[in-house]
User: What shape does this take?
Amino acid sequence: MGADNYFLGGELITLDSEERRARLVQRLRQYLELRNLNLLIGNGASLPLGAPRIGDVRQIRGDFSNEPYRLKNAASQERALKLLDKLVPENTVLGVEPLLTALANVQAIDQLLGGSVSVAKNDLPATDAKDLERLLKKWLFQKCRALSEAAVNLKYHEELLRRILLRSTTLPRAKVFTLNYDLLLERALDNLGVHYFDGFLGTITRTMRTESYHYDLYYPGETTEGRVSRVDRVLHLYKLHGSINWRRRASPAGDVVISHTEPAEAEYGDVMIYPSPLKVTEMNGYPYSEMFRHFSTHIHQPQSVLIVVGYAFQDNHVNRLIYQALTIPSFVLIVVTPDVSNSEIARLNDLKSKRVIILTGAEKNAAGVYAKGAGTMQDFSTVWLPDITELNVESSAREEVKKMFDPTTAPGTL
Assistant: This one.
């Protein structure tokens, strides 16, 4: 589709020479070693592996009548589809997440005010909204579970994570934020043998306790002085929009737990996929408010960099926090995107800030998915994102060669 390029301060720089490529890698290496490293991963990173597209409900309307997505209760299924067609008529483009937001509002109004919502003089019963919510979440759950359990090649996820884990252990832990519901990142971390904090504590019943993000891992030293050493290869994982293995538990109220079992038919509404309708007794927006609080806190710290991969800047609540972080002089934003035709990404480029780097360029495979180029996760994780270990070895080798040929340091020099 396009050649490999990047934008720096709004200026287009083509990656058509070894010198320019080396300069970009070196620049990225410097940012990897900033004090606070943050990574934001969107659905574009999972699409090449078969993730569902959720940007247009009408395009997936046919799936809802098929197994394993349809509701088992025929009356609930009929009510859900009727409401869907009422809210999203043909030739209307609306994503799954915005529709879930609307359904959450319908149920909240019924719960708080005891009245139904009307759209175009048509009443929207809360019971119908709940049926459609369950249908949408069942579709999302089944699609993401199939992807998470499929024998897909996670080498690019693994390589991306491996390279950010090569940072010095004297620096704060890298923070990985994702908007995806699937479990591909968890699988990649397990494949790498990496310890990670995901906000949950427990073994048999893992319950969300976000204070665990303040914990760290150390092991005893070999001396008798009681010193400890910090465990390397540890990071923090935040799922901003929830996950297919999160469940809302009725008691204690507001608890969120990890479950790897398939929900019962009536429980699909309790799968914690953003945005979930909340009972009035629960904390406002919990647990999503906690996830976004951490996201905001970390990218607003001094000497922070945010690397964005596979995210098309379609969520205003995410964009707002990123734009606010750009007001901090030491904040750096690196966006990996197939092209800059997206209006929000073009807007970032129009800032002409030296603190905004946008890598572009991609080629599509036979399935119509971006699979190669500087603007894809595949090439960014293996070609452009520096391997700090290899760079350090190369740097040491150059220094050794320099000393060998430096007459002032040659053996026998007086």
